[in-house]
Amino acid sequence: MHPDHEEDPDRAVVFHAANLLEVGEFQLLQLAFFEWYGREMHCSEKDSFFRSVFLEKKTPGFLRHYARKIVLSDDSHDLEAGAPFYHRYDPVIFDRRLPNGIGRFV
To answer: Of all residues in the chain, what percent are helix, strand and coil, respectively (each to 5)?
Structure first.
């Protein structure tokens, strides 16, 4: 994604925050939802938010707030983008840890 080409400033900050964390925009939505509501999204909510955010191009307040928080953390050099908390929705194939024993080959 190229957040500098996004005309909507809310969507641009969401893209930028996702890029900083190296997660997808939907993963950022899940993280924002969890922080705001203190729980995981239900399946019906995932469908509804996906439609709203990615098809209708709406940015819920909790997502905008979370994205701005990530960008501000990066600006103040406090962001730990590789923290496991941000990557708990990553597919297993993107696990950043090296398997046991592989260190001697790298």
So the answer is: 65, 0, 35
Q: What CA–CA distances, in Å, run from 8 to 20, 32, 43, 67, 76?
A: 18, 19, 28, 14, 24
- Span 62-104, pLDDT tens digits: 999 999 999 999 999 999 999 999 999 887 655 555 555 555 5
- Which amino acid is present at 26? F
Q: How far apart are CA 77 and CA 74, in angstroms?
A: 5
Identify whether the C-beta of residue 17 lies closer than 8 Å to the C-beta of residue 66.
Answer: yes
Give the model confidence (pLDDT) of 74-84 as tens digits. Answer: 999 999 999 99
Taking each helix axis from N to C end, the angle separating 25-37 and 9-21, rounded to the nearest 10 degrees, works out to 100
